[in-house]
Automatic annotation (TrEMBL):
Function as written in the Swiss-Prot or TrEMBL entry: One of the essential components for the initiation of protein synthesis. Protects formylmethionyl-tRNA from spontaneous hydrolysis and promotes its binding to the 30S ribosomal subunits. Also involved in the hydrolysis of GTP during the formation of the 70S ribosomal complex.
Protein's name in the database: Translation initiation factor IF-2
Location of region: G-domain: 62-210
Location(s), subcellular: Cytoplasm
Signal peptide positions (record): none
Source superkingdom: Bacteria
GO molecular function annotations of the record: GTP binding; GTPase activity; translation initiation factor activity
Any one cellular-component term (Gene Ontology): cytosol
Family to which this protein belongs: Belongs to the TRAFAC class translation factor GTPase superfamily. Classic translation factor GTPase family. IF-2 subfamily.
Organism in which the protein naturally occurs: Christensenella massiliensis
């Protein structure tokens, strides 16, 4: 084995460790096939997702997002739809703004995301959550396709979400539906009326005209999509809103994607975990279960989850805390990785990326006169992009305290005719603080000027 490793260019001893790829390469040389056993993490055990069987799947309501240009009537439309179609039989409930609501048409439910615009849609997609089945693009009939309309169309298209166009404000005297249809064709949305595939519904959020037609069309598109979920399993959903409520603690609106969420269920969403203490639906009623596509406000999280986080109901509650803690550690590690320390070698890139606006420096020199001279000449290098700022100056060797200060302030250390002591050296390596030593002021100025321009010669 050692000989084979040597032929692969690896000097190893009988005590060396090798990775799986190398091991399987060497084993292959001997005609042996290796199999890698990957240990399950707590997360894998906690969130085990068995695939659903076809017969377990049941029809679920479509989830709809309304997007479009500002002032074209997104909010008005959401309000009007809700007013006119409060879930039949549940009328009388007080409408509750929980981030999404359901309406009913001919016994069929539709879920609307209650935050208009594509910001929420994009923010959630950025987190890997896609909760929208159908996008309604609103265009004001007396205006036309505007920049945000185009953005909305592009977002829906890139997410592969079918589009229905609602041409709004048709009650206005200067409404011109034909003109809007013409503009739609210019954006690859050929109206059905003209032989295309895009459903266009003229509506008025003011009078309510066309609203029923719009809902019918939503149900029609949903029918084609065959939206299904398995209600007989532990719930999985998306956090669509969350906040800290003074009286109730962390509160989050969950849109159930599949399964049924029940009070008492153990839950985890991002780094928040807990147990469903209570659930409130979109008309302010306490409910004990939430079905697929149903939005509910959930109380019982350990902390406020983040919108876009995926919620899982889980069987064991002992593990959920552990998994949440592990996720937290992972998050911290990622943040730390992003917080790269400033260094002269990389200064130009960091400036260019906008990560640095102040170049903080700590100056240590052998005599007070030099400290001042170095400080003044370096601060003079400030330009429009970066301000060079001496955050600490002193006489004497570079100490561990200097390093810790530089680390906290993301500064580099300039030593003039001085050296770091042993403790400082170790600390600098640990904290990744860049220490530069000079004997001539001019050389320090030259280096920093070059670094700011991205022309510092690499140090060997
Ligand atoms: P959003 O920015 O897209 O949410 O638009 P809003 O819903 O806030 O509506 C912008 C303005 O248009 C408001 O003054 C509404 O009253 C008005 N508006 C919205 N829909 C209609 C409509 O169908 N007819 C008329 N006449 N006005 C409307």
């Amino acid at each position: 084995i050692l000989k084979k490793l040597l032929l692969l260019g690896m000097m190893s001893t009988i005590n060396s460790q090798i990775d799986f790829d190398t091991a399987s390469l060497v084993a292959g040389e001997f005609g042996i096939e290796l199999e890698q056993k990957i240990e399950k993490t707590a997360e894998d055990i906690l969130i085990e997702e068995a695939p659903d069987l076809e017969e377990q799947l049941q029809k679920r309501p479509p989830i709809v997002t309304i997007m479009g240009h500002v002032d074209h009537g997104k909010t008005s439309l959401l309000d009007k739809i809700r007013q006119s179609k409060v879930t039949e039989g549940e009328a009388g409930g007080i409408t509750q703004h929980i981030g999404a609501y359901q309406v009913e048409l001919n016994g069929e439910k539709i879920t609307f995301i209650d935050t208009p615009g594509h910001e929420a849609f994009t923010a959630m997609r950025a987190r890997g959550a896609q909760v929208t089945d159908i996008a309604i693009i609103v265009v004001a009939a007396d205006d036309g396709i505007m920049p945000q309309t185009v953005e909305a169309i592009n977002h829906a298209k890139s997410a592969d979400v079918p589009i229905i166009v609602a041409v709004n404000k048709i009650d206005r005297p200067n409404a011109n539906v034909q003109k809007i249809m013409q503009e739609l064709t210019e954006h690859d949305l050929l109206p059905e009326e003209w032989g295309g595939e895009t459903i266009v519904v003229p509506v008025s959020a003011k009078t309510g005209e066309g609203i029923d037609k719009l809902l019918e069309m939503i149900l029609l598109v949903a029918e084609v999509q065959e939206l299904k979920a398995n209600p007989d399993r532990l719930a999985k959903g998306t956090i669509i809103e969350a906040q800290l409520d003074k009286g109730r603690g962390p509160v989050a609106t969950v849109l159930v994607e599949t399964g049924t969420l029940r009070t008492g269920d153990t839950i985890i969403a991002g780094t928040a975990y807990g147990r469903v203490r209570a659930m409130v639906n979109d008309i302010g009623q306490n409910v004990s279960e939430a079905l697929p596509s149903q939005p509910v406000e959930v109380i019982g999280f350990s902390e406020v989850p983040v919108a876009g986080d995926i919620l899982h109901a889980t069987p064991a509650d002992k593990l959920s805390k552990q998994v949440a803690e592990e996720r937290k550690d992972k998050q911290k590690a990622e943040i730390l990785k992003k917080m790269t320390k400033v260094s002269l070698d990389d200064l130009f890139n960091q400036i260019a990326e906008g990560q640095i606006k102040d170049l903080n420096i700590v100056i240590k020199a052998d005599v007070q006169g030099s400290v001042e001279a170095v400080r003044q000449s370096l601060e003079k290098l400030s330009n429009d992009e970066v301000r060079v700022r001496a955050i600490h100056c002193g006489v004497g060797a570079i100490t561990e305290t200097d390093v810790m200060l530089a680390s906290a302030a993301n500064a580099i250390i300039i030593g003039f005719n001085v050296r770091p002591d042993n403790m400082a050296q170790t600390a600098a390596e640990r904290e990744k603080v860049d220490i530069r030593l000079y004997r001539i002021i001019y050389k320090a100025i030259e280096d920093i000027t070059a670094a700011m321009k991205g022309m510092l010669e690499p140090e060997f």
